[in-house]
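Ops channel
N.P.: pipeline sanity check, posting one input/output pair.
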């Protein structure tokens, strides 16, 4: 009975590895199978992937994480630039209105060089 249980366990493990490998091979190109950078090479190979494929998928996961990090930094910088641009546009509108109202002559200040 113990030998039979061992055989069933071995077959189950083999079947799981086969399904994992098939899911990875078919799912990765479709974006349906995700390998994350916290997975290990040993884990992926232990689940049935060929070593070259495991290494490739782990490197891709690391690159994807780096790209996401750099994209977040870029998005943050773009938001800051837009914020500064909006602030400058507000100042330009204010200065143009001030100039149009003739108020710039009362304080003898050139609106383009004011520190406002």
């Amino acid at each position: 009975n113990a030998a039979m249980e061992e055989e069933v366990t071995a077959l189950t493990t083999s079947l799981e590895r086969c399904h994992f490998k098939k899911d990875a091979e078919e799912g990765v190109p479709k974006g349906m199978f995700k390998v994350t950078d916290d997975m290990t090479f040993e884990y992926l190979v232990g689940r049935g992937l060929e070593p070259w494929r495991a290494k490739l998928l782990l490197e891709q996961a690391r690159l994807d994480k780096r790209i996401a990090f750099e994209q977040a930094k870029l998005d943050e910088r773009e938001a800051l630039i837009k914020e500064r641009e909006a602030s400058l546009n507000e100042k330009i509108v204010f200065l143009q209105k001030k100039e149009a109202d003739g108020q710039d002559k009362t304080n003898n200040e050139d609106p383009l060089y004011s520190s406002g």
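N.P.: looks fine end to end. The two ends are 88 Å apart (CA to CA).
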